[in-house]
Amino acid sequence: MPSFLSLVRGHQLTAFFSLALGLTWLAFIPFWLSGGESIPWFTFGPMVAGFIVAALAGGWASVKPILASMVKWRVRPFWYLVAFGLPFGAQLASIPINPLFGAAAPAWGNIPAFSEMLPIIGLYAIFSGPLGEEPGWRGFATPRLLTSHSALAGSLILGVIWAIWHFPLGLVGDLSLYGTINVVLAGIVFTWLYQNTGSVLLAFLMHVTHQNSVRFLGKVFVDGDYVQQQWIGVAIWAVIAVAIVAYYGTESFARRERTKPAVATA
């Protein structure tokens, strides 16, 4: 009978996805069932799961590449522009388009001052997903998925699981169809960024920008106009994803093969 460690080594992605979902959901569901007013969402589940499975499967040799990618900042300046500009630009572009479909004029005064947003952005970067998710989704899962799948297939697999990971938020009314589709599309864009930089740090920055662009720029509309704007944003992300696949192809999302991050071996 195979040992526990051999099972983990042979099924690293299954172990990772199971643990990532389990850690997050188990911290959430008991509070929801008890009717608690404050529902915890353990956003560090993917990161913790990635490090645990990497350590069990390959020891320090598998943990070290994830840590290195989290602080990898020496990349072409273009990719910083992508990480910051693409999510911000997509959300910003949705604003003037929205009134063309009957929405009210955007209320720019609803956006808080930058000095008010900055500490909120910092807190959300740490506790609302980017830091807790990206080392797991991109640092651990992406390079392993791409050893046996094309970049497109791997992105869609990860995007669907990433969306499923958010499902318990629907129990408290904090999950939407447009948000779920956006996560799947973002899986393609994030894989493209990671494939060309090998940097979880850049994925973290894109996650922060995407999350807070929606949070703050979305304030210029309310009610149905807000929902319509978010669907327009999803359409823009779909165009970006299709453009990546059309230009780079489905296999690697990169014009030249880069050195793949080390992954655990038995």
UniProtKB/TrEMBL annotation:
The keyword Transmembrane helix applies. InterPro entries: MmRce1-like, Rce1/LyrA-like_dom. It holds the Pfam family Rce1-like. Keywords: Membrane, Transmembrane, Transmembrane helix. This is Type II CAAX endopeptidase family protein. Residues 119-210 form the CAAX prenyl protease 2/Lysostaphin resistance protein A-like domain. The chain crosses the membrane at residues 12-33, 39-57, 78-101, 107-127, 148-169, 230-250. The keyword Ribonucleoprotein does not apply.
